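note to self: dont lose this again. the chain is below, predicted strucutre after it. 316 aa total, dont forget to put it in the shared folder this time
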Amino acid sequence: MKALITGISGFVGSHLAELLLSKGFEVHGTIRWRSKRDNIQHIEEKLHLHECDIKDASSVRNTIIKSTPRYIFHLAAQSFVHTSWAAPAETILTNIQGQLNVLETMRDIDWPCRCLVVGSSEEYGKVTEDELPITEKNALRPISPYGVSKVAQDLLAYQYFQSFATDLVRTRAFNHTGPRRGEVFVTSTFAKQIAEIEAGKREPVMLVGNLEAQRDFSDVRDVVRAYLLAIEICESGEVYNICSGRSLKIREVLDMLMSISKVKVEIKQDPARLRPSDVMILRGSSEKFRKATGWVPEIPFEQTLKDLLDFWKGRV
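---
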């Protein structure tokens, strides 16, 4: 079995590559010429890497034709919500054009190929308490350029399934974290700051953004296991939430990390870490996906945070 992971050198891509290799897949992946390879350095010799600009239609087409995958896991994207406010055009172009290039190539190839279109809980956007837990039937009300781009990817995939019977599955993963998470993301920036404080490389002051927002967190290793089940088992054209079903305030996540570390710090809000508008609560229901696949999260969130903090201690 051959699999192509777009954005393989990213956080999720690297964990998915590890999983697929353990299952006996021949794993191909797209990288950019300037991509950092730290996340895949330990498995790089086992991978088939292709330089590819996801925004370039001919580059995407050539990569897919050369790798002849049975499965395409489309992960390549501008994935940081905060960045989408500073670079909305780049976010929209990368995410939508990249999706379009993959789908257009799939129309032309002459072998069976299925694509996993990776969406986000940010598609749901503004959610009220009476709409919880969020199911796949909730309205899509994105309130960031990133959220808008993921809605467009999601609906573009649906349109290709309806118009051309393109074989694909759509997922909407809620927040996920773990070792190798980029430092711009909330759990990782907390863990890195704690590791630096412990190592004496930083004053005991923790810079934070909005601590009152609530998020539904899963471990990335549970999420990539869900992605494999989705592409192998789930019904073509359908959309599935992937989430724990439990929401935590960001303040609670910070407290959990602090309790693991035992460091004493001052908490200071950094205005640069606040968004123009923020989703205040996300708590999902993955009942549809669990019924379809039997998937359940296996890694406790406390273990996820410990592994993340250990990762940053090693880096620092």
